[in-house]
Write a structure and sequence with these properties.
The complex is a heterodimer of chains A (116) and B (112). Helices cover 0% and strands 54% of the residues of chain A. Chain A has no helices and 11 strands. Chain A is globular. The mean pLDDT of chain B is 92. The chains are: A mainly beta (116), B mainly beta (112). At the A-B interface, β4, β5, β9 and β10 of A face β3 and β4 of B.
Chain lengths: 116, 112
């Protein structure tokens, strides 16, 4: 099956710093990638949809200037949490969709961000 | 998006079948029924999906009611590795909306 990787798997940073999370589709080209956030004991919440070569579409309530998404190629999308604060501590998960099918999404293993 | 309703939690003994129910009474004719599961501290993984007919794959079976207002994910022999949160999600094929809306899901506990 298709594989999606994320890097780093976990990160601890100080309040006010920026953190970049990478999401890669390893063996397929993804026209669309999605970024989700999951707080403890809660379900996944979609943050934004990212199409290669175009601006990301953010869900209501998600600050686009705080969560910068770049989708420069068909195999790589990055999420940068700018000026991170403790309330941004969460599990960030990306997913990717194959070019030719809209049936199945492939999820990365997630990145656990802790902001001190 | 049409909504789904699932029990918060279920338990099963190891090596026994598990039937995970999902109600979707407002489902439209073009909604596909998708199931994903999320193991602890991991990203979700696709399990199965269907439209009208029952579906089988190596992971599970999906039984869809004739009126499509409910469906059941069937794990034929639960293993400890199947302990996860299972999400039943509807996706409308018409709109091309590809994002998934995750509800609260069912937390499956497998008892050794």
């Amino acid at each position: 099956g298709a594989v999606v990787s994320q890097h780093p798997s976990w990160v601890i940073c100080k309040s006010g710093t920026s953190v970049k999370i990478e999401c890669r589709s390893l063996d397929f080209q993804a026209t669309t990638m999605f970024w989700y956030r999951q707080f403890p004991k809660q379900s996944l919440m979609l943050m934004a949809t990212s199409n290669e070569g175009s601006k990301a579409t953010y869900e209501q309530g998600v600050e686009k200037d705080k969560f910068l998404i770049n989708h420069a190629s068909l195999t790589l999308s990055t999420l940068t949490v700018t000026s991170a604060h403790p309330e941004d501590s969460s599990f960030y998960i990306c997913s990717a969709q194959l070019r030719a099918t809209y049936n199945e999404q492939f999820f990365g293993p997630g990145t656990r961000l802790t902001v001190l | 998006d049409a909504k789904t309703t699932q029990p918060n939690s279920m338990e099963s003994n190891e090596e026994e079948p598990v039937h995970l129910p999902c109600n979707h009474s407002t489902i439209s004719g073009t909604d596909y029924i998708h199931w994903y599961r999320q193991l602890p501290s991991q990203g979700p993984e696709y399990v199965i999906h269907g439209l009208t007919s029952n579906v089988n794959n190596r992971m599970a079976s999906l039984a869809i009611a004739e009126d499509r207002k409910s469906s059941t994910l069937i794990l034929h022999r639960a293993t400890l590795r199947d302990a996860a949160v299972y999400y039943c999600i509807l996706r409308d094929a018409r709109t091309g909306a590809n994002n998934l809306f995750f509800g609260t899901g069912t937390r499956l506990t497998v008892i050794p």
